[in-house]
Amino acid sequence: MGISAYTFFEQQQADRGIDLEQVKQQIKALKIETPSWGYGDSGTRFKVFQQVGVPRNPFEKLEDAAQVHRVTGACPSVALHIPWDKVEDYDQLRRHADSLGLTLGAINPNLFQEDVYIFGSLCNSNETIRRQAVNHTLECVDIARATGSSLISLWLADGTNYPGQDNIRERKHRLLSSLQEIYQALDPHMRLLIEYKFFEPAFYHTDLGDWGMAYNMALKLGNQAQVLVDTGHHAQGTNVEQIVAYLLDEQKLGGFHFNSRKYADDDLIVGSTNPYELFLIFYQILDASQATDAGVHQTAANIAYMIDQSHCIEPKIPAMIRSILNVQTQFAKALLIDFSAVKRAQERQDVLAAENAVREAFEFDVTPLLRAVREEMGVPVDPMRAYLQSDYGQRILARGKGGASW
Ligand code: RM4
Ligand code: MN
Ligand code: MN
């Protein structure tokens, strides 16, 4: 490792016409938000295994998140879930974040854990319950104001389990009018990110079942509403990269929830099961960031990158660090794509050369590059090792058990 591996890599990339200084700048600029809930215990519907040392409150969640930022330098903000992270004094939470070198990020309303939401929240046919759901989301807009956050990230569990259970079109109308009221409450710098998922907890129909439905709502609401792509929320075989490209071109891609899936909404460590998909997502983003249309590359520049993982069996902090390293690895590889070679091959309609120009970037070992970047950033060259060698993991054991995500 070290000098020689990097020198070799530099030469190799220079020969391909890749400007490594540019590449390094872009890796340094990539910031990924981590979720407060990823530091707590979560589980499946079968069992929540309790780990020792898990944070007991939002303040401790931030302290754990600060460890991830300390070793990676890439995670300066933390997403909150309300009411899981509800506190008396948001200014105090904000100051705590500040003292740890963090900011508070996206506010996620929770519209699925109250008993009244058994038949839905923003789509519920019962007006009183709909009002409660809208009010909760409006409270989240206020919290965003207090925490200095500019994103409201909305995911609904709404749907039905049986044909005929409720009127699908009427639910759509209720959803739009609920969202319109929420949208009106946003400050001009705020964005509403609308997340979709194809199933679960509803099993017959889901009110925001795919990107098209989220896109339609965002389009009707206005410029401050965009779609959030959670990489775990698609049916098997869905081409997520295409969704990314399409939404970017429509200037409606607002952000990501990164995680990996094998079967359903598994919320596994990002890049653990499908690193090539993550690479291809970045390929589309980088392609859009070179678009001639200013709106498209602005959209690409404003993407909110967030992790959304539930760590059931993994130690939480190292799992989060692994995720960040995996994102950086795939991003670094995508930056090595020779876009002019791709374009030339496309112009010749040379299928194999085009595919090769994309894939060959994936096949480089970017370890020396990432080590060099980390050295320049002043963070440990091996963040995982640095964390494991610190005594933080030992110290938090004193917290005992019982720190659930919710
Ligand atoms: C959902 C979705 C949301 C997250 C909840 C807890 O499946 O991914 O983003 O807030 O889970
Ligand atoms: Mn999500
Ligand atoms: Mn999910």
Automatic annotation (TrEMBL):
It comes from the Bacteria. Residues 88-266 form the Xylose isomerase-like TIM barrel domain. The keyword Plastid does not apply. Pfam families: AP_endonuc_2 (PF01261). Signal peptide: none annotated. GO terms for molecular function: isomerase activity. InterPro entries: L-rhamnose_isomerase, Rhamnose_iso-rel, Xyl_isomerase-like_sf, Xyl_isomerase-like_TIM-brl. Keywords: Isomerase, Manganese, Metal-binding. This is L-rhamnose isomerase.
